[in-house]
Amino acid sequence: MARKTILVCDKCGKEVEEARGAVLRVTYSDARRMGKQADLCDDCAGSMPGQPAARRGRKPKNAAQA
Ligand SMILES: [Zn+2]
After folding, report:
1. CB of 24 within 8 A of CB of 43?
2. Ligand 1 mean position to 53 CA, how many Å?
3. Which of 10, 17, 27, 63 is deepest in the core (most CB within 10 A)?
4. C-alpha of residue 33 to centroid of ligand 1, in Å
């Protein structure tokens, strides 16, 4: 297939253009549990719960005094 893959938002079903949108990843604390992920369009990604996150496991140095 020479067609490029078209991503579809897992929440609203809209097509997600290349280089747009986001992937929402769910990782369970229980490492044995299989996580899951969802492709989201820009709009849906913005309305998902969560907070700006850098990397897991370490707090950004300037988080407290910002
Ligand atoms: Zn969407």
Report:
1. no
2. 21
3. 10
4. 26
